[in-house]
Specification:
Strand order of the largest sheet of chain B: 1-3-2
Largest sheet of chain A: none
Largest interface: A-B, 25 and 30 residues
Number of helices of chain A: 8
Number of strands of chain B: 3
Strand content of chain A: under 5%
Oligomer: heterodimer
Shape of chain A: globular
Radius of gyration of chain A: 19 Å
Distance between the termini of chain B: 13 Å
Strand content of chain B: 15-25%
Structural class of chain A: mainly alpha
């Protein structure tokens, strides 16, 4: 009995990732982050542009996230939904959503505090980022049952570990890490989109 | 032993026949896992023909388990199906009945 419901629920969750758009959207955010950190490396400490970039970090990342989310919805409306159908997902309980936001804020804030208080630990920032992002991919992999997210988690951890021991300073290492993740996500999303387009036919008109 | 079989037969007769039909069971299972889904998604997931799916959805709508809304997304017509609170309750009770029967037979 549980097979009908559990299978339907799993397939519905997998359907959100069927076209690869979400991976490419997150890849865009990683790309922007990578360019941000590398630009910081190139600019001098007293540069006005550097100061503006530091001040506008939340706006830059948040704005990219919003644009990427909007782009995903638009692309799904134009390509995915006419091709294989539309699904609206149930929102979880408000308490769970608040918990996720709180947890994200706590982890981010905790890490920022650690790195501010103990500058010597800043060398591990790429590994810490890789660990958090890798854990997120593992979570998505478990929820969706899709193996490629476990591969992305491994790529994240390997990239983070490699950069932590590479001798690069923390900011350029972070920049390289996020650019590597951007490439990995675009490859993963692109392959998924390619396979989706070849496995499905064009828009199906309703009768 | 005979009483166990009588209990099993009684439980089976109490099962919601509307949901028990395999195609409708699949439709209801899919809709219970999401907020709503359109006709095309249901057709692909169930493997039913358009006519067959329409017929089963009409039965479920008649029973008040499903609402069907015809709308547009831009210029594209869309048929959105949504499991009602009654439908969710019926499915939940159906799952509980089947679980009881499975436990009895084990």
């Amino acid at each position: 009995m549980s097979d009908n419901y559990d299978n339907a629920a799993l397939r519905a969750r997998q359907y959100w990732y069927t076209d690869g758009f979400n991976e490419m959207a997150f890849g865009t955010i990683c790309g922007v982050l990578g360019l941000y950190f590398l630009t910081q490396t190139l600019l001098s400490g007293d540069s006005l542009l550097r100061t503006l970039l530091e001040a506008g970090f939340i706006v830059i990342v948040g704005g990219t996230g919003l644009l990427a989310g909007t782009a995903v919805n638009k692309l799904k409306q134009r390509l995915t939904y006419p091709r294989t159908g539309y699904v609206a997902y149930r929102k979880g309980p408000k308490s769970r959503r608040l918990l996720m936001v709180g947890l994200t804020a706590a982890v981010s804030g905790g890490l920022a505090a650690v790195f501010a208080i103990l500058p010597v630990w800043q060398a591990w920032m790429p590994l810490a980022s890789a660990g958090i992002i890798g854990a997120a991919w593992v979570f998505v992999g478990i929820q969706s049952g899709l193996a490629r997210f476990f591969v992305l988690a491994m790529v994240s951890l390997l990239a983070g570990a490699g950069l932590a021991f590479s001798g690069l300073e923390n900011i350029p290492a972070l920049g390289v890490y996020y650019l590597l993740m951007a490439v990995a996500l675009f490859v993963s999303g692109g392959v998924t989109l390619y396979r989706y387009l070849h496995a499905t036919t064009g828009p199906q008109p309703e009768e | 032993m005979e009483n166990e079989w009588k209990d099993l037969a009684r439980n089976l007769s109490e099962v919601d026949r509307l949901i028990h039909e395999p195609a409708r069971l699949t439709i209801v299972a899919i809709l219970s896992a999401v907020e709503s889904a359109d006709f095309l998604y249901l057709q692909r997931e169930t493997g039913l023909t358009k006519g067959n799916l329409s017929s089963h959805l009409a039965r479920l709508e008649e029973a008040g388990y499903v609402t069907i809304e015809k709308t547009y997304q831009g210029k594209t017509p869309l048929t959105i199906c949504h499991l009602t609170a009654l439908g969710r309750q019926a499915f939940s009770e159906y799952r509980a009945s089947m679980k009881r029967m499975m436990d009895q037979t084990n």
